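Morning - zinc ion inputs below, output right after.
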Amino acid sequence: MKQKVTRGKPNPGTNKVTKTLKLPLLSLNSVKAKEFSRFEALNTRLANRILALSDEQKRSLSSKDFSDLELGSSWVNQTIRNVQTSEKTKTFKSLPLETNNQNWSLHKVGDTWSVSFNLIRGTRNRVPVNVHASSHVQILEKILNGEAKAGSLKLWRSRKGTWHVCISVTWDVPVTDNANNRWVGCDRGQNIPLVAATPDGPIIFYQARKIRHIRRVYAARRAMLQKLGKTRAVKKLENKEARIVKHINHCLSKDLVALAVRCNAGIRLEDLTGIRNAPQRRSAKSDAGLNRDTWPFYQLESFIKYKAAISGVLIQKVPAAYTTQACNPCGALNKRKKHSYVCTRCGHKAHADGNASQNVRDAETGRFCLLVLKAPEGGCYDGALNEVRDEIGNNLVPRTRTTKSA
Ligand SMILES: [Zn+2]
């Protein structure tokens, strides 16, 4: 009798996903807005008061110690906790009001969503505030029917002066086990921020805005301001540049995860840990567009990770070594020339980043095998000098210089 063998990877189960929803308050009248501003100022003063205390005094604090304030006790308690955990802060310029999940609630009447909370000490009734929730309706529905757990609520004013409530929500997402072993391979680079090789073949280049160009322009502007001694303006520009790059990374990661969902595949990334320690040429270091120290690949990775977790997409990291140099069809090592990649053995021509993304995608199954690859003696400029798999199957055929022309 034949025995049935069940294959496949064990189900990794579920992912715990936490997301902060930023919901603008709708039709907030000026009286309420002013009250919020006043309470925020009150809260900031309270935080600075606590900050001035000694560590021992800080530890034994409770909301009763501040009963002179008109702020509700749960808000005071949260501020105490927030100050206790932010050890490095010297003064708070402004600390948003925050309260735990027991002091606010979510309501839905018709299509109108509202949150209610009481700011003022001693009052029981909660004041509902309408929120603009169009893009988060699914998650909010989860809170109402108990599938998701709501955490703390923060009252936050944007730079433009609009008031928002920020709600942290936690829920479970089942992870797809990716039993069909389909992967989207991703190559992150400084010129093209993200290149994705889909399991069905096509390669997608996410150009976004030219990050390299942005970096150079902003570095030049900052250098000019630095010369003039305008340090605050320099800092401001730095923040602006960081915001632009962050926005680009958000867009890229969102598109990539959507692609993986469409392809019904997991995402494979190169493991870039330690790349900051790799030596750089001096010419690269002095060029803001080339300097690897400011390359925001880690931010992009963390965005991809959390967005993938929300969508239940599996993430796998593969070693980054040789992903750019190896030829995807035959496994030979060649050097890229700017954007073009030409294999000196099999004649394969490709965009260098596209070839790299295919190598990441095929990290386990392709001819480019990580375990076999070694840097050949005398460098890898000639290509096809390393051991590769032969035409038929898995036998390793050592290649020598004589086979180069074949
Ligand atoms: Zn080749």
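Note: Confidence is low (pLDDT under 50) at residues 1-11, 374-406.

O.
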